[in-house]
């Protein structure tokens, strides 16, 4: 089922009542990237290795000075390659209205604090992340819902990304290991990796800008079942590697 493309007030009106659709129930679900399945509503494919990506923005500063912020959730094809912008008919351009109409104001409020762009409006950033990455998640396809209502898969996407981000307190994990933002210190990349891997349960990928300034992190997951209510299992981000040197800067916001 392919929904009509709607934006803004028209889209909000479409789901002004409580969302009626429900995703498929997945009995004995398989873990993504483990073989194959014809049931793409319960087995994420081809994008089965999910990367939850976070920013540490210092120039310009975005978000609280004691937290990293959300970049997105990207379905990696289990080998480092990506599919992008998979369904232009669902490239919704008013995520704010979708979330409000679905009664997800708490999710929206959280996004306004922790899912921020450093070079465009937040709404444009969210629209981009959904259209580029969210539309490529097989278990979020409209055909995976009973009584589907236009846009509810995007609501599920943003709700799940926010919930996942809350389980990944990068700033706190580093602080607990004695690694805090500093204008004068440098840190061993291996020490940062070790602290985060120990807390997360799998290797992470830290990225740098300006050669040695840490500014981004990839957390990898396989998903058992669908994205909406499946189990995210920490794993190595296959196909991704750090560009940071052995000693890095972690400046304060």
Automatic annotation (TrEMBL):
<dbReference type="GO" id="GO:0033897">
    <property type="term" value="F:ribonuclease T2 activity"/>
</dbReference>
<keyword id="KW-0378">Hydrolase</keyword>
<feature type="region of interest" description="Disordered">
    <location>
        <begin position="232"/>
        <end position="253"/>
    </location>
</feature>
<dbReference type="GO" id="GO:0006401">
    <property type="term" value="P:RNA catabolic process"/>
</dbReference>
<dbReference type="InterPro" id="IPR018188">
    <property type="entry name" value="RNase_T2_His_AS_1"/>
</dbReference>
<keyword id="KW-0540">Nuclease</keyword>
<keyword id="KW-0255">Endonuclease</keyword>
<feature type="active site">
    <location>
        <position position="129"/>
    </location>
</feature>
<dbReference type="GO" id="GO:0005576">
    <property type="term" value="C:extracellular region"/>
</dbReference>
<dbReference type="InterPro" id="IPR033130">
    <property type="entry name" value="RNase_T2_His_AS_2"/>
</dbReference>
<dbReference type="InterPro" id="IPR036430">
    <property type="entry name" value="RNase_T2-like_sf"/>
</dbReference>
<comment type="similarity">
    <text>Belongs to the RNase T2 family.</text>
</comment>
<dbReference type="GO" id="GO:0003723">
    <property type="term" value="F:RNA binding"/>
</dbReference>
<feature type="active site">
    <location>
        <position position="71"/>
    </location>
</feature>
<dbReference type="InterPro" id="IPR033697">
    <property type="entry name" value="Ribonuclease_T2_eukaryotic"/>
</dbReference>
<feature type="compositionally biased region" description="Polar residues">
    <location>
        <begin position="232"/>
        <end position="244"/>
    </location>
</feature>
<keyword id="KW-0732">Signal</keyword>
<dbReference type="InterPro" id="IPR001568">
    <property type="entry name" value="RNase_T2-like"/>
</dbReference>
<protein>
    <recommendedName>
        <fullName>ribonuclease T2</fullName>
        <ecNumber>4.6.1.19</ecNumber>
    </recommendedName>
</protein>
<feature type="signal peptide">
    <location>
        <begin position="1"/>
        <end position="20"/>
    </location>
</feature>
<keyword id="KW-1015">Disulfide bond</keyword>
<feature type="active site">
    <location>
        <position position="133"/>
    </location>
</feature>
<dbReference type="Pfam" id="PF00445">
    <property type="entry name" value="Ribonuclease_T2"/>
</dbReference>
